[in-house]
């Protein structure tokens, strides 16, 4: 059985969950849920093409083909008693400024985890491991901005 750490505010943590105990009941939030919230927030940022490294994206393509998806792909979280640290691996669309994308992802993930999960975000570390070049994927823009 996982060890439990009780806090003064009634929240307890066990290896992979955050638990809040009130007079009306108990709420348990698994770490994978925190990772999914962070992943969804990061994917919604303009300029983010995908999350995860090459192998993770390959397995993700297979999951997508069979109708499943991993919203926490490319996301790792470390959840403490009151704080969470998030590590993300992302692919950025070319020619989007990468530092701007990283800043926007950091803000979106922080807001989502704080508002939806109720934990303070200590840090959001971002690794950009690839660039998506639309012209290489068969999408070419002409001078008028139309897609062929």
Low-confidence runs:
1-14, 56-66
Number of helices: 3
- Please give the largest β-sheet: 4 strands, antiparallel
State the strand order across the main sheet.
Answer: 1-2-3-4
Over the alpha carbons, how many angstroms does the gyration radius reach? 18 Å
Measured by DSSP, the beta-strand proportion falls in: 35-45%
Spatial shape: elongated
Span between termini: 58 Å
Task: Tell me the number of strands.
Answer: 8
Mean pLDDT across the residues is: 79
Give the helix level as a range of percent: 25-40%
Which series of helices and strands comes N to C?
A: EEEEHEHEEHE
Structural category: alpha+beta
Précis, in short:
This protein is of the alpha+beta class and 148 residues long. Helices cover 30% and strands 35% of the residues. The strands form 2 sheets. Strands 1-2-3-4 form a 4-stranded antiparallel β-sheet.
Indicate the topology.
Layout: E1 4-6, E2 11-14, E3 17-22, E4 25-30, H1 31-43, E5 48-51, H2 54-65, E6 75-79, E7 83-93, H3 98-117, E8 120-132
Parallel strand pairs: 7-8
Antiparallel strand pairs: 1-2, 2-3, 3-4, 5-7, 6-7
Could you explain the architecture of this structure?
It is elongated, with a radius of gyration of 18 Å. It has three helices and eight strands; from the N terminus they run E-E-E-E-H-E-H-E-E-H-E. With 148 residues, it is an alpha+beta fold. The model is unreliable at 1-14 and 56-66 (pLDDT under 50). The strands form two sheets. A four-stranded antiparallel β-sheet has the order 1-2-3-4. Strands 5, 6, 7 and 8 form a four-stranded mixed β-sheet that branches. It has helices at 31-43, 54-65, 98-117; strands at residues 4-6, 11-14, 17-22, 25-30, 48-51, 75-79, 83-93, 120-132. Strand 3 (17-22) and strand 4 form a beta hairpin. Helix content is 30%, strand content 35%.
């Amino acid at each position: 059985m996982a060890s439990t750490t009780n806090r003064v505010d009634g929240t307890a943590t066990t290896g992979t969950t955050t638990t809040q105990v009130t007079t009306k009941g108990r709420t348990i939030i698994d770490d994978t849920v925190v990772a999914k919230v962070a992943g969804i927030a990061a994917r919604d940022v303009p300029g983010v093409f995908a999350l995860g490294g090459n192998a993770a994206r390959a397995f993700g393509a297979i999951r997508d083909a069979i109708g499943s998806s991993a919203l926490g792909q490319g996301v790792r979280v470390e959840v403490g008693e009151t704080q969470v640290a998030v590590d993300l691996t992302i692919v950025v669309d070319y020619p989007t400024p990468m530092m701007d994308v990283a800043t926007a992802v950091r803000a979106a993930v922080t807001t989502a985890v704080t508002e939806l999960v109720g934990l303070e975000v200590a840090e959001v570390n971002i690794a950009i491991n690839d660039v998506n070049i639309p012209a290489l994927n068969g999408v070419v823009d002409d001078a008028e901005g139309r897609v062929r």
